Amino acid sequence: MQYTKNQLYQIAVQSLESKNVKQAIEACRLLNVQFPAFFEGWHITAELYFKLNKPETSLLSIAHALALQPAEPRVTLQKVECLLAMQKLVEARELLLEIAKTNQRNIKKWKKQLSLYVLDKTSMLLGVQELRKEALLQTELAVSLDPKNPILLYNLSTGLRFAGKIERSEAVLDKCLALNPFDFEAQAMRSSLRKQTKESNHIHELESILEDKKLPVQGKVNICYGLAKEYDDLGEFKKSFSYLQQGAKNRRARMSYDVNNEINTIDTIKNTYQKEMFEKNIVGNVNEEAIFIIGLPRTGTTLVERILGSHSDVYAAGELSNFSLELVKQINVNTDTSTLSLTELVKKSASVDFASLGLNYINSTKPSTGHTKRFIDKLPINMLYAGLIHLALPNAKIINMTRHPMAACYAVYKQLFKDAYPFSYDLQDLAKYYIAYHRLIQHWKTVIPGVMYDVKYEDMVHNQQAQSQALLTFCDLPWQDQCLRFHENKSASTTASAAQVRLPIYNTSIDRWREYSQQLRPLQVMLEQAGISCD
């Protein structure tokens, strides 16, 4: 049967949406062969291969599309996304700057696109540290062209929050919500921007939305987390936890997740990386630039990053996934990882060339890094790879953030994460994961003794100067007074702590969990039965 180009295009689009990869690939192939001058055919092909995690192949289709329609907004930003996926940050930044110029030359053309594909890409770019300044400028321009577009306003507010412009971020969110009060992510984010007061809060507005019987589940989740935050600010703890529990339960119900799979992976890591592994004559890469901050989220990792990142010899690179990505690439040298389970991946990882892994990791962080003596990789989940990091980069510094177990668990439980940490929405899952995490950290301390430096969040809060001095000494850095004034650091933060890091150290969150000790009691019992002290 002979299809028209529009029929083939619809087949490609529908196949992509339904995740029928084989049919999508064939439809795109026929489109490109039979209708090589059809722009949308190359565009959908580029989108397909990017979603298949093949950015290099996607770029080939993008080149064909841009040859037909140079500087077309959707495809140009798609090219930026491919370059980012390939860690080509310099090229991505240069292209983004060119896009900004194109915006100004072709305002009508871009305005037409801003309510479509460009919005999502601009939002994505705001999350990339090296491109954030340019992306924020681009978002400002977009809002000036289309000031009543709530999606654009939300993106702008997000960028302003990352940049520490909290008051303006809230003002922009107010405009966004005036246009679309059912933007549930915006509602939740507004609640998190500042401490709410009895005189100034959004509780009535949020509870009114929650009464809507047609409210989608994800909307209910966001509103419940917003209410939990606002009631906690007001000291109404029973109401706060009730909404928190409701939001977490709804979030967990939408997930296909088994915490035991993660625990099995952690157990495999411990079994694979026994002491004998570290007694072998494994030679890693001698580079000493990297400082890894590991632990659970919401335990003070961002605070320590800001303190260290205020030093003139340190660059805070953010939460990088580079180490695990480079590890998989190393395993791929001899094995097709696409067919392996997580536990099989762990077992295969013990045979990689650790010196190459270290070198490739360092190279993958450039050109963002390399302009200071040291840089920080603050991805908490790197705690899974602490032993591997030491094998690959024996001169790297590894800082292990700790916090009172109950404070750590409550801090994780009350946070609505975008995609990560699925164990955080159920107290039993959370307890099981915390126990596995705790045992893994103890394992690393046994097999690589003296390598990790523990920083206790509570100690840092109560004695900032002494703890900061000890931290700098561990990192072989001379003392600089600006490390005590980390809250004056102008660099962006994209973590859940983006608003808090603009403030001096405060101690109000240290024992906050005790206000919920009764509700958290089942979790505490599980931790104590596992031998974890919660005194």
From TrEMBL:
<dbReference type="InterPro" id="IPR026634">
    <property type="entry name" value="TPST-like"/>
</dbReference>
<dbReference type="GO" id="GO:0008476">
    <property type="term" value="F:protein-tyrosine sulfotransferase activity"/>
</dbReference>
<dbReference type="InterPro" id="IPR019734">
    <property type="entry name" value="TPR_rpt"/>
</dbReference>
<keyword id="KW-0808">Transferase</keyword>
<protein>
    <submittedName>
        <fullName>Sulfotransferase</fullName>
    </submittedName>
</protein>
<dbReference type="InterPro" id="IPR027417">
    <property type="entry name" value="P-loop_NTPase"/>
</dbReference>
<dbReference type="InterPro" id="IPR011990">
    <property type="entry name" value="TPR-like_helical_dom_sf"/>
</dbReference>
<dbReference type="Pfam" id="PF13469">
    <property type="entry name" value="Sulfotransfer_3"/>
</dbReference>
